[in-house]
Amino acid sequence: MRLIVTIDGPAGAGKSTVAQRLASRLGYFHLDTGALYRAVAWKVRAAGVSPSDQQAVSRLLAVTRVTMRHDAGRVIVLVDQQDVTDEIRTSEISDMASVVAAIPAVREWLLPVQRQIGARGGVVAEGRDLGTRVFPAGHVKFFLEADMDVRVARRHSELAAAGHAVPMAQTRQDLDGRDARDRSRHLAPLVAAADACVIDTTALTADQVVERMMAVIATKL
After folding, report:
1. For residue 182, what pLDDT is reported?
2. Among 87, 89, 86, 105, residue whose Cα is nearest residue 46
3. Minimal CA–CA distance to 63: which of 81, 90, 85?
4. Using an 8 Å Cβ cutoff, are 89 and 38 in contact?
5. pLDDT tens-digit series, residues 8-37
6. Per the count of CB atoms within 10 A, which of 72, 117, 129, 131 is most buried?
7. Distance in angstroms (rounded) separating the CA atoms of residues 102 and 158
8. Contact indicator for 163, 157 with CB cutoff of 8 Å
9. What does the pLDDT look like over 152-163, one tens digit per residue?
10. Is 218 exposed, middle or buried (0-12, 13-18, 19+ CB in 10 A)?
11. How distant, in Å, are the alpha carbons of 36, 48, 85, 160, 197 from that of 6?
C-alpha cells in the first residue's frame, strides 16, 4: 500500500529536511507544497504585480502554469516551463509567498495541483494545510513544531547556505510575520489536524524525527 503522508508545521520546524529524508527512505515522491506558493510569488514579482492586490493576482493565475518534477533526487519547480528552483528560495520570495498564500483564489488554484500529485499515493507532502484541507483523508499525518529560537537559527542557516545573507534579527521578524499570517488567515489556517501526530523537533536531529515517523508509518503498512 502506497500511503499519503503529510507533514505540516511552521517555517523552521524542520519540515523540508525531514520530508526529503522520509521520502527517500520510503521511495516516495517528495511534494514540497511551499515551493508551489513560492512559484506563484515568483510569477507575481516577475509580472510586476503587488502581492496584496488580490484581483490582479487572481487574474495572473489564468495565464500561469506551475509544475514540479524530480531530477536526480532534486525537486525542480517550473513556472511556465522556466526553471525557477533556485530563484524561489530567497527571503524576499519567501515573504511574498506568505502573502499570496493568504489569498483564497491562490489556495483554490493550487488545490487540484497538489491533489493530482498525491492521487496515487506514494507521496510525502509538506506544507501548512495538508492534513486539514489538501489531504484530509491522508493515511499518516504529522505536525512539527519547535521553539522559536531554534526555528530562527535553522532558517538563518538555511538562507546562509543558499547564499542569502540575512541578519538574524530580520530572520526572526520574518518568521514572526509569517506565523501571524499563516495562523490567522481565514481559509486553511496553520493548525494541526485532529488526527495528526505532533512532534516537537527542538531537541531532535532530522534523523531522529524520521525514525519516529517511520515507527508510526510502520503501523499503517
Report:
1. 86
2. 87
3. 81
4. yes
5. 999 899 999 999 999 999 999 999 999 999
6. 131
7. 24
8. no
9. 999 898 888 878
10. exposed
11. 16, 34, 22, 27, 10
At 87, list the grid cell.
Answer: 530563484
Which residues, 6 or more positions from 114, have their beta carbon under 8 angstroms from its beta carbon? 31, 33, 36, 125, 127, 130, 134, 135
pLDDT given for residue 44 in this prediction: 97
Q: Residue ranges per domain, the chain?
A: 4-208
Structure-model confidence comparison of residues 78 and 221, the more confident one:
78
Domain 4-208 has CATH 1.10.287.470: no
Per the structure block, which three cell numbers stand in for 139? Answer: 493515511
In what order do the strands lie in the sheet containing 29-32?
29-32, 123-127, 4-8, 140-145, 197-200
Mind listing the pLDDT tens digit for each residue in 77-133? 999 999 999 999 888 898 899 899 989 999 999 999 999 989 889 999 999 999 999
Q: Which three cell numbers stand for residue 75?
A: 525537486
